[in-house]
Design brief:
The chain is an alpha+beta fold and about 170 residues long. The chain is about 20% helix and about 20% strand. It has a domain at about 85-150: SH3 type barrels, CATH 2.30.30.
Length: about 170
């Protein structure tokens, strides 16, 4: 048993010395300069002289055609649909006038709506109700309209008839 321990110990020492001996022949890399090459590597710079540059410029007789920038159509951004900035009610008519109109639904803040027109009553837009897909009236203060949106083409909606109560 003692003999087996000595054999294992001696074998381990031989392996350790062999591993250390492998690293003895490794050389340190040469120091590198700022361009990534060893500092003792010669650097050759190939730059044309001023006279060579001038002669190559004057030797070029091929004219470069000018680009026609007017043929490129101007990209006009497509305006986004109006944004409901605050949760707002959507009515069957302008609810702040007499008589009162029916509340159709509410539109959540952050919803984009299709603008159908402006109401004949100031301060009201007519939009497509995103829930029921019908026209409804929403107060102007709750809608943010893209400045690129062309409001001149919008239809003006008259005040709809008042709802009649059924007996």
């Amino acid at each position: 048993m003692l003999k087996l321990k000595w054999i294992v110990l001696l074998s381990s020492l031989i392996l350790i010395f062999a591993a250390l001996a492998c690293n003895m022949g490794v050389r340190k890399p040469a120091s590198t300069s700022t361009n990534g090459l060893p500092s003792n590597t010669p650097v050759i710079s190939i730059e044309p002289s001023l006279t060579e540059t001038q002669s190559s410029l004057s030797a070029s007789s091929t004219p470069i055609p000018a680009t026609n920038t007017s043929s490129v159509p101007a990209m006009t951004p497509t305006p986004q649909n109006p944004l409901v900035t605050t949760t707002a009610y959507c009515w069957s008519g302008p609810a702040d006038t007499t008589p009162k109109y029916e509340l159709v639904s509410s539109i959540q803040a952050g919803t984009r709506v299709q603008l159908l027109g402006k109401g004949i009553v100031d301060g009201w837009w007519v939009v497509r109700n995103p829930r029921y897909n019908d026209p409804c009236w929403i107060q102007q203060q709750y809608v943010q309209i893209d400045p690129a949106y062309d409001l001149s083409t919008l239809k003006t909606f008259p005040v709809p008839p008042t709802p009649t109560a059924t007996p």
